[in-house]
Design goal:
This protein has 110 residues and is α+β, with helices and mostly antiparallel strands. It is 16% helix and 33% strand.
Length: 110
Amino acid sequence: MLILVVEPGSMPETREITGSLEEMQELVGGLIQVIYPFPEEVALVCNDEGKLLGLPLNRCLRLESGEIYDVVAGTFFLCAAPADSEHFESLTADQLERYRRRFAVPELYV
């Protein structure tokens, strides 16, 4: 499965994973949390305890107006999450490029 990995302070990178629970947990450094912050069927998978563990802040999540409503802590990845499937899937080439651009600039928090 092709995913887009976003690490704090780094540019997003495409990776291929098997999609096993263990592999996803290893990628985010702990228990996974899946959120759906986008209008399309794309999941953001992050560490469920990222903020509690004090992981570095990574990227903001914004409303369509541009207003920040949350900040993801620690490494996260994006994958396709079709409503008619029980499993995650690869992002399309268009999705990879669109989200690579969206999260291209590492953000600093003070």
